[in-house]
Amino acid sequence: MGISDDSPDRALQADTDGSPSSDRRIDPVLVAQLLRGGGQGEGPFVHIETHISHVFLAGARAFKLKKAVRLPFLDYSTLEARRRMALRELLINRLFAPELYLGLMPLVRESRCGTERGAVPFTLGPLLMPQTIAGGQDLEALLSDPEALDALLGEWAGDNQVCEWLVVMRRFADQDRFDRLASAGGLQAADVSGLADALARYHQRSAIRRDLGGPEVLARGFADVVATLESLPDSPWSASELAKFSEGVMSRIEQAAPRLDARRRHGRVRRCHGDLHLANVCRFEGHVRAFDAIEFSDRIGVIDIAHDAAFAVMDLIAHHHPRAASHLFN
């Protein structure tokens, strides 16, 4: 369906994830229409949909809209949850890529909502740029306190005219993503060194967490992954294949349990990126920057620092760059 075919009575729709909720969600087609006509700069407009968000590339900016979904590993089912998760995403990712993450932008209801056919029933609010937290214990305390998070947004946090929240980023060239560079043969040793340095700096200033990580948390997280794979209607794995895979991984976790516990005791479990595959790393203005760090689950985002680096190591190997993988890890 084309953008011009949508009308305001479709703008606010009920959740469709099957979970009970009184929350409403925004029609992404109308968000696209608003951003296209909102003077966001020249350049091609692109709408990318993932299983948990919509990303709109408009001019020199990127806008991320979280879907109103509830999954085994995250809960975006209410507007309140999406607001706080958007703020968590901003604060965590500014530590990795301060130049990329600009702030949050509310979508605000128009008084004409639902009355003029063909009109977008909401408008863009101001770009809100909450204070950046330096990391460490200060960040951990803030992330665990919903009221403190809301205070960063002032009166906007409780404004009942806000119908959704956008994470606003600066747009970068697709060809500067590390997965594109690796596939095209353009990834340089300096790029890998830059990623290693950036990751080391981030891990060094991250707060030590002894309440997470370790074999039991790793096992629960893996069990969630298996449960999600089992629930997929078009899963590429049979039940027997998943069972065999699960048994093998759980056995490895059990074997490594003493070492995992020792690393946790020695402060190796910290807030990390949590999803450091090559498509989440880029060159930007002469620097290497990681983005799209995990904000929605501390069980996924607070892990052993070696596991954090392992994402990129495995992806470098998958892209046929074993020397770069060795360079990064060592």
How would you describe what is shown here?
- The protein is 41% helix and 18% strand.
- It has helices spanning 28-36, 79-96, 136-143, 146-151, 178-184, 189-205, 214-231, 239-265, 298-301, 305-318, 322-329, and strands at 12-14, 24-26, 46-49, 53-58, 61-66, 70-71, 74-75, 101-109, 122-124, 162-170, 269-271, 281-284, 287-290, 302-304.
- The protein has 11 helices and 14 strands.
- The strands form 5 sheets. It has a 6-stranded antiparallel sheet with strand order 3-4-5-10-8-9, sandwiched between helices. It has a two-stranded antiparallel sheet with strand order 1-2.
- By secondary structure, the chain is α+β, with helices and mostly antiparallel strands.
- The longest helix is centred in the C-terminal third of the chain and has 27 residues, at 239-265.
- The protein folds into 2 domains: 3-171, no CATH class; 176-329, Aminoglycoside phosphotransferase (APH), C-terminal lobe (Aminoglycoside 3'-phosphotransferase, Chain: A, domain 2), CATH 3.90.1200.10.
How is the topology of this model organized?
Layout: E1 12-14, E2 24-26, H1 28-36, E3 46-49, E4 53-58, E5 61-66, E6 70-71, E7 74-75, H2 79-96, E8 101-109, E9 122-124, H3 136-143, H4 146-151, E10 162-170, H5 178-184, H6 189-205, H7 214-231, H8 239-265, E11 269-271, E12 281-284, E13 287-290, H9 298-301, E14 302-304, H10 305-318, H11 322-329
Antiparallel strand pairs: 1-2, 3-4, 4-5, 5-10, 6-7, 8-9, 8-10, 11-14, 12-13
Helix pairs in contact: 6-11, 7-8, 10-11
